[in-house]
Predict the 3D structure of the following.
Amino acid sequence: MAFARTLLPALLTVALTGVPAAVPAAAVPDPAAADTAAYDGQVRHGTALFSVKSSNNAAAQAFTVNDTRLSRVSIWLGSAAATGSVTVQVRRVLADAGSVIASKTLDLAALGGAGAGWVEFPVSAAVTAGTTYYLFVQATTAESGPVAWYGTVGSVPGSLSSWNYDRAYWGGWHAEDSRPAFHVNPTGSERCGETEPCYVPSTALAARTSGLLSNGVGTEAVLPSFAVGASYVDGSNVLRLPSGRWRYLPDGASASAVVEAGDPGASAQIDENRGWLAAGEVPGATAVQRSAAQRALLSMRALLRPNGAFAAAWAPAWKYSWPRDGAFAAAAFAATGHDEEAYRILGYDALTQRPDGTWEARTELDGSGPPDARKWQLDGNGWVPWATWQWYRAAPPGGRDERLRRLYPMVRAAADHAARSLGPDGLPPASPDYWELDTTTANIGTAAPLLAGLNSSANLAARLGMGEDAARWGDAARRLSAGIATAFAPLGYQRTVDGKHGRDSAVAFMAPPFNAAPPGLGEALDSTYRALLLPNGGVSPGNDPSFSWGSYAWTASTSFFALAWSGTGEHAKAGKVLDWVLSKRNRLGEFPETVNGAGSPSSVAPLGWTDALVVLTALALQGSALPTPPTGVR
C-alpha cells in the first residue's frame, strides 16, 4: 500500500515475477481515459508513495501520449538498497504481463547503489496516440531496505489513475488518488540533469560540490546532484549533460544556462579554454596524469578571481583566499607557462599583506579583509616568497626584473618579519599551521615553509643587487636550518619540537621543491607515511593524540608525499601515491578535499590546493621538476 499512509509491511525478496492475472473488481482501467487529454507526466516527488519491491509490491501509472513512438520513460526513484534491479514495462493491460510492448531493466549498482532521483529508461515501441497505456514499475533486491516510487499526494489536474500492487494488504491492484512522478518521452528540461537531478547515489552526497563552471569572471559550483551522468566537454569548463545538451556559464552571466550542443556561445568558451591550455603546458608522464592535470589547471583557473584572489574551493566555508593555497597555485601556473595568472596571485598577496609583513589566515575574495577572527598564520611568510621565487624562475626573461621589483617590498616585509620571529634556538614561535590549529611550541608546518621562504627571499634579493637584504635573510635561513636540524630532525620531523603531537605530513615540506632534503629525511618520509596511512589508502594530515582526523584521508596531505618523493628521485613511490590520488577523482574528474572511510570523495571538489600539488607532481614525474631555492646567497 502507499508509503504515505502506512509503514512498509514486511516484504518478500525474490526474483522479479509478473503480477497475478486476476484483478479485483475495483481495479479496472479508467473508462473515460480515451477521452482525456494526453497525460504523459508529472514532476512533483515530495512523498515516497509506493513500495515497488517484488514480489509483494509493484506500482503502475496510466498514461496517454500524442506521439506514435516511445523512446524513453523516467521515474523518480528512491532506494535504500544498493544492489538489485529496477524494471519498467509499458503495458496495454494493467495486470497482464503478456501485454507488455516495451521493457527495460537497470541495475541498482550500476546506478551507484542506494540513492534517489530521476531514472531514465530507454525503451522502444510503437504506440497509438490517445490510447491508454500503463507504466509498470517493480524492483528486485535481496536487501531489506525500501525501494519506492516517489510522487505527490496532491491533486494533479488532468491526471489518470495510479495503481498500487500490494499482495499482502490489498490482495492485488488498488487504484490510488496519489500520483507518482514520471515522464514519457521526456525532452528538454524534462530530461534529468537539467532542472532536476538524475538519480544521485547517496555516496555522492558526501561531497558539497562536484565541479565548476566559469566564464573567466564568474564561477558557479556544480552540485553533486547535477554531476551524475554529466561530463565536461574535453578541455573546457562546459558541462555535457545526460540529455546531450550543454550547461555553461555565459560571458557576463552569474547563473548557468542549458543550451543545445554546439551553441555558439558555449562553443566559443570551449575554444577559449582550449586555447588557454595550449598556450601553456599540460604535464604528465602518462595519459591519465595529463588528463588529470588538464582538469586541475582548468579548475584552478576557475577558482582564480580577476583581482588575484584564489578561492580554496567554491563552497561557502572555502570561498576565501588563503596565502598558502594561492602560493601553490601560483607556482603551478608559473611552471606550466601561465605567467599572468601566477603574477596576478602574487599581486593580490602584495595588496593584502598586513603592515607588519604578515598575512591573515584568509581573506574575503574582494580583498576587504578576513571574514572572521581566525588567528593569522606565520607560514604565509614562507609560502609567498617561495611562490614569488618560483614565478621569477619560470617567468619570461624580458622585463621580469622590473616586475619583481614591484613585488619586492612584499618580499622584504615578509622575509624581515620571518627573520625577526626566530628565537635564540633559531626556530619560529608557535603559530597555527596548515591544520589551522595552534600549537604551544614551534611546529614543522611553519618552520619548513619559513626556511624555503628565507632562502627564496635571499636569492631574489641577490638577483636584484640587494646585497644587505640577501645577507640578512641568508643568515636567518642558516640559523633556522640549524634549529630544525637540532630540534626536529632527531624526532623524525614530528609536528612539534616537544614531541607531544605525533607525526605530520608537513615533513614533506623539508623536501624539494621547497628545501634541499637534509640527511635522514628519506627515513622520516617513509616512517611518517606509514604512520599516517589509512585503510582507504590515503593519509591523514597527522596523528596528534590530542586531535583526531577520523577515517578521512586528505588529498592534499597525501599529495605532499607524492611531490616530496618525486623531488627526491623516488619516482616509483611518488607514482604509486599519485595513482591513489588520481583514483579518487569524482565522476567529473575533480579532486576532492577528502576521501571518507568508505573510499568516496567527500567535502568539496575541486580543491585548488590538491589541483596545484597534482600539477607540480606531474611535472616532476615527467622530468620537469620545479627547482629548489638554493641555500646561501647565489
About this structure: The chain is about 30% helix and 15% strand.
